Amino acid sequence: MAGICAIASFDGSLIPRTDIEAMMASATHRGRDGSAVWRGPGIAIGHLASRITPEDELDRQPLVRDHLVLSADARIDNRDELVPLLVRLGFLATELDETPSSEIILAAYRCWGDDAPAKLIGDFAFVIWDGRRRRLLAARDPMGMRPLVHCLGAAHRVVLGSEVSQLLAVPGVPRTIDERGIAATIAGPYLSADATLFQGIGLVAPGHALAVDGRTVRTRRYWQPDPARLEDHDAAGCVAEFRESYARAVSDRIRGVEPVGISLSGGTDSGSIASTVGWLIRTGRATASLRAYSWGFATLPDSDERSTSDLIVEHYGFGGVTVEGDDAWPLAGLPAHGPDLDDAWFWPYQALIDRTIGRAAEDGVRVLLGGDRGDELLGDWVFDEVGLARAGRVRAAIRDLRVAGWS
Predict the structure, then answer these.
(1) Residues with Cβ within 8 Å of residue 86, at least 6 apart in sequence
(2) In this structure, what DSSP letter does residue 176 have?
(3) What is the spatial distance between Cα 325 and Cα 307, in angstroms, rounded to a whole number?
(4) In the chain, N or C terminus with fewer CB closer than 10 Å?
(5) 12-53 pLDDT, tens per residue?
(6) What's the sign of the alpha-carbon dihedral 375, 376, 382, 387?
C-alpha cells in the first residue's frame, strides 16, 4: 500500500522540510515505487508510491490541480460509473480506462465537496488540501482497509499519516502511552475504531471524514449499513445478492494484477475467497493466475490444514506453495516479528505471516489475498463488552459476557 504524509499549520508558520522528510523516511516500505513532496505556505504533503493496478502506472502524487492538493492510498472500484459521470459533468478532462484513482477522488471532491467520500466504492484513505479555503479534508473507506492516523494540535499543527511511526517522527507530536488503550487491548483485544495506543494520536474511523481548518475540527460519519436494502428480499434473494457482491469484491482486488497470491488455510474465509477466484477465472470474469501459500507442519500434523486447502488448489489448478511452520512458533524471532507502534496486538502466527509475505514477495506477488474477520462475523469474537460498557450499556455488556462464558 502507498503512504500518506501531511502537515498543516494554521498560525502562519512554515513547515520545515525536515519534518515532512522525517515522516517519509519512517515509512520507506510504502514507497517502493518512489516518493515526492509538495510544499506551500503553512502546508506540506508527501506521498510514497506503491503501484499495484494498471492505472497506478499513470499516477503521480501528490496530485495538484489548481488550489487542491491530494495524497491518497486508494483503489477505486466503481470507476466505470464515476469516470464517465465526472467527464460529462466537466470535472474530468477525458475518459480513460486507466484513469488513476487519485484523479477520480480529486474530481469527486471538486464535484461533490465533503460528500465525495460517500460516492466512492473501494479501499481508500486520502488527504485533500484546499488552498482556497485553507482546509484539510481526510477520509477512510467504510471498512477501514487503508489506515490514516492524525495528531490534532501538535505545536499548533495538524499532522496526518498512514502510520503512527510517521507521526512520532515529527517534533512536537507526543509519545505518551495511553494506558486506557493498553487496558482495552488486553481486554478486547481491539481498540475503539478511532483510537491508537498513544495519547493525542487518533485514527480517522472507518466510514468517517475529518475536516480541519484554523478554527474548527469536525468529524462526520458519511456511511453506515442500510438494513432497508434487505427488506424486499427473501432468503434466496439475500443469498443471490451476497454472492454477486462477494464475487465483485474479489474480482475488484485481482483486476489487472499478475500474479495474485492468497494465504490459504483450511478455513471457510480464505477457502471461499480462493474458490471464488477459481470460479471467476473459469467463467471468464477474471484472467489472473493464483498462487496459494499454505502453512505446513511436519512435526505438528494436527496444525496442518493442507488436507483441506490442497483440495481447492487441485480442483482449480492453482500453483501451491508450502510455507514451513514448525519453527515459527509464537514469539519466534523477536523483535523482528514483534509488535509495532501501530498495533500492539501480537498475533501468535506473526512469524508465519511474515514468512508467507516474504515468500510471496520473492515470487513477485504484489497482491496477497487472505481471509480476515471471519471469526468476528461467525465465531466467538462477535462480542464487544468493552465497547458496550464505554457506551453506558452496562446490562448489554454483562449479557455478552455471560453468553461468552463468563459467570
Answers:
(1) 92, 104, 107, 108, 111
(2) -
(3) 16
(4) C
(5) 788 999 999 999 999 999 999 999 999 999 999 999 999 999
(6) positive
Cα–Cα distance measured from residue 252 to residue 52, given in angstroms and rounded to the nearest whole number? 12
From 144, 143, 61, 52, select the one nearest 105 (Cα to Cα).
Answer: 61
Which residues make beta-bridge pairs with 37? 46
User: Using only C-alpha atoms, what is the Rg of the chain?
Assistant: 22
- The CATH class of the 229-372 domain is alpha beta
Domain residue ranges of the chain, discontinuous segments joined by +: 3-221, 229-372
> CA nearest 165: which of 343, 350, 31?
343
The shares of helix, strand and coil residues in the chain, as percent rounded to the nearest 5, are 35, 25, 40
Contact between 319 and 292 under an 8 Å Cβ cutoff? The reply is yes
Query: 233-271, pLDDT tens digit by residue?
Result: 788 988 898 899 999 999 999 998 889 999 999 888 899
* Tens-place pLDDT, residues 56-74: 999 999 999 999 999 999 9
CATH architecture entry for 3-221:
4-Layer Sandwich (3.60)
Helix or strand (DSSP H, E) at 83 = helix 79-88
| 331 φ/ψ angles, rounded to the nearest 5 degrees | 75, 5
pTM of the entire predicted model: 0.89
Nearest to 190 by CA among 407, 394, 383: 383
The Cα–Cα gap between 251 and 16 comes to 43
Read off the C-alpha cell for 369: 489475498
The whole-angstrom separation of Cα 358 and Cα 44 is: 33
Task: Report helix, strand or coil for 90.
Answer: coil
Residues 212-240: tens digit of each pLDDT: 998 899 999 999 988 787 777 788 988 89
CA angle, corner 181, sides to 338 and 329, nearest 5?
Answer: 25
Contacts by 335-344, CB closer than 8 A, 24 or more apart? 340/165, 341/163, 341/164, 341/165, 341/168, 341/197, 341/198, 342/147, 342/149, 342/163, 342/164, 342/165, 342/196, 344/182, 344/185, 344/197
